[in-house]
Amino acid sequence: MLESVRQYFQDWSDACEYANECAPDLSFLGNGEPFTALLFIAAACYLAWAVNEARIQRRGAARPAASTQPANELKAVVAQMQQAQAAPEKLAA
């Protein structure tokens, strides 16, 4: 068994030197060109999404108290606006 593996690598090395191309033969993967490209794009998008989600989670865990303060300020502004709109003006007839 080991002799056949050694012979395979020796043949591959000889062919590599002869052809001046030392890339491994990946022809067994098939030529599913549009699908492999789409799969690569999907994997890259998922990786970018996962990294962004992890950063958002870390940033949110670092400042939990700071995120509630602007919400309270906005609630106070909304309450003032609702009080100003509560008294409708009467129009002269």
Topology:
Elements: H1 2-19, H2 33-62, H3 68-86
Structure write-up:
There is one protein chain. It is built from three helices and no strands. It is an all-alpha fold and 93 residues long. The mean pLDDT is 78. It is rod-shaped, with a radius of gyration of 33 Å. It starts with a helix and ends in a 7-residue tail after the last helix.
What is this entry, summarized?
With 93 residues, the protein is mostly helical. It has helices spanning 2-19, 33-62, 68-86.
Features:
93 residues; mainly alpha
Helix content bin: over 70%
Low-confidence stretches: none
> How many strands appear in the DSSP assignment?
0
Question: What form results from the Cα inertia axes?
Answer: rod-shaped
The average pLDDT is: 78
Tell me the series of helices and strands, N- to C-terminal.
HHH
How would a crystallographer describe the biggest sheet?
Answer: none
Q: What count of helical segments does DSSP give? A: 3
The secondary structure category is mainly alpha
